[in-house]
Amino acid sequence: MAVGLTLIFGVMRVVNFAHGDMMVWGMYLAWMLATRAGVDPYVGFIACAAALFALGWVVQRLLVDRIVDAPHEMQILLMLGVALVLENGALVVFGPDPQRVRSPLRAATIWFGPVFVDVARLVTFALAMALTLALYLFLTRTDLGRTMRAAADNAYGALVIGTDVRRVYAVAFGIGAACVGAAGALVSPILPFQPAGGLSLSVASFNIVIIGGMGSLPGAFLGGLLVSVAESMGAVFLSPSMKELVSFSLLIVILLFRPAGLFGRTTT
Amino acid sequence: MRWLAAAALAILLVLPAVLDSYAVTVFIFIFFYAFLGQAWNIVGGYAGQLSAGHAAFVGIGAYTSAVLSVQAGLTPWVGMFVGGVLSAALGTVVGYLGFRFGLRGFYFVLLTVAFAEVCRIVTLNTDAVGGALGYYITFTGNPRQFQFQDNRAYYYIALALMLAATGIVAGIERRRFGAYLIAIREDEGACEALGVNTFLYKMLAMVVSSFLTGVGGTFYAFYLFSLQPNAVFGIPLSVEIVIRPIVGGAGTVLGPILGSFILSPLAELSRIYFGQGGWSGAHLIAYGLLLIAVVLFLPQGAYPALRRLWGRMPAR
User: Fold this and answer.
1) What is the ipTM of this complex?
2) What's residue B135's pLDDT?
3) A contacts of B106 (beta carbons < 8 Å)
4) Which end of chain A is more exposed for a tag (fewer CB within 10 A), N or C?
């Protein structure tokens, strides 16, 4: 999920506050597919990603495009508006009760020596890894991916050599949204979800991205690992309800001393 | 303009005599959120430092005066200033860290959110102030304890708060301090190059803003009589605080008031009409749409646009 945010921010320097809410929509789409059509979320995530890609594209084309050169503050406010609409749209459509998708994989467990892992988590993890890798390869090996990085580095320069920067932005935003859509669908069998969770998911993913380094894919991945490890340690050593405290404190410290993140290059 | 303001004030003063209790409540919320928006306006509007964690200051002010009143019997009339001072202390810390380390734009937003969230989680886990159950004040109706039988007393207090904050903001705008803040918002580098101590003025703005917001916390506590960490420190309250000045016009004296007169009744109305049957999020959808519209079409807010529309007064 943080990977998608990194892509959007890295390419366009636009902060997507609606990130968590897009993820919640991904979860609900997976839930609808599972309950109405009987599609397992581990298959349905592709459809969710496609739907979210469309949503991301539309948001970019219709809204963000108009203010991509405006001050950061305006973009933050705009995305906050989008977040409010998405979150409460979900509340109106799906109701406030937490939901959970049942997957047959959820019941199965595998023993790895002394520890046992349930298959659902394992599959989620493996697919998330695969998606991250695919995205990384896409960005470094394909023409469109290279163009995206070029536009991120120097939008004006990219424009000069004949790139349709606006289209690249729209694709980047779409892919970013598709990543969260897929991520949402993939974790829907593991985590219960509800509309109100969007904002905290957004904050959590900012957390990961900032800690890992804005605009760096490996950073986002390592940041994700770091934050979850730190949170679990916090849960063990302090108390389960204090675990968020650890990641927010971590965030404050990183913001102050290493605003580019642990793995980011220093750019302004 | 001056007598227009006087006429508006006169109407607001006599209004409770004709309104029913529910309408008075709506006005109380209009004034209260205008007050909070005005406080935010100093640092967010004039100085251009987008704080998205102002709920933290409301929460600290609210908890401070409530705990002092219940545990130590200190009257909230004094407690509100203690709460304000404590909020200002947190504001100093956040401002010092944010400004000293040069966090701008999005990074500053995140810093303020992170601090508010830390406050929320700590309060949630502190059993001495009720923890997740919340903190409750027993209603006695004693004016010395900031408790009134009559809704109209709260009406006048909220009105006074709003007017006081507006007076402070107007005063700041007219002085050199205000000019510095606007200059910092427009071009901080140039401002610094001209020898303005931008750090100092941003700090001052933050301290004044957080102090006022903390004072507002007392009103919150003794109007609602219950404090929930998720409500008082939560991100949604911060959004409520930020959105009014933005819609009305950040960095203008009347913007937050205008914004509150637009948004607070809107929130109330949609709560009445959509409150039941799963439509509880409707007013926030309206907020979101309005926010998007304002950013796209009226980036300076409604008040400057209105001014241009009238085209009579020279823009200040």
Assistant:
1) 0.72
2) 85
3) 15, 72, 76
4) C
Is 90 exceeded by the pLDDT of residue B211?
Answer: yes
Q: Give residues with Cβ within 8 angstroms of A166, minimum separation 6.
A: A65
* Residues, chain A: 268
- Looking at the domain assignment, is residue A33 inside a domain? yes
Match 């303020």 to its residue by tokens: B112
Establish if B282 touches chain A: CB-CB under 8 angstroms: yes
Contact B198, B191 (CB under 8 A): yes
**AA letter at B126:** T
Answer yes or no: do A78 and B103 touch at CB < 8 A: no
Ramachandran assignment for B225, one of left (phi > 0), alpha (psi -120 to 50 degrees), beta (any other): left
In-domain check, residue A222: no
Containing domain of residue A177, as a range?
2-196
Instruction: With CB atoms and an 8 Å threshold, state whether A248 touches B299.
Output: no
User: What are the pLDDT digits (tens) for B212-251?
Assistant: 999 999 998 888 888 888 888 888 888 888 888 888 888 8
Give me the residue spans of the domains in chain B. Answer: 20-234
Q: pTM of the prediction?
A: 0.80
Classify residue A95: in a domain, yes or no: yes
Tell me which residues of chain A have a C-beta less than 8 Å from any C-beta of chain B.
15, 63, 66-67, 70-74, 76-78, 80-92, 95-96, 195, 199, 203, 206, 210, 239, 241-242, 244-245, 248-249, 251-252, 255-257, 259
**Arithmetic mean of pLDDT, A165-177:** 78
| Parallel, antiparallel or unpaired: strands B226-227 and A115-118 | unpaired
Between the alpha carbon of residue A190 and those of residues A22, A30, A34, A186, the distances in Å are 18, 12, 14, 8
Q: Is position A171 within any domain?
A: yes
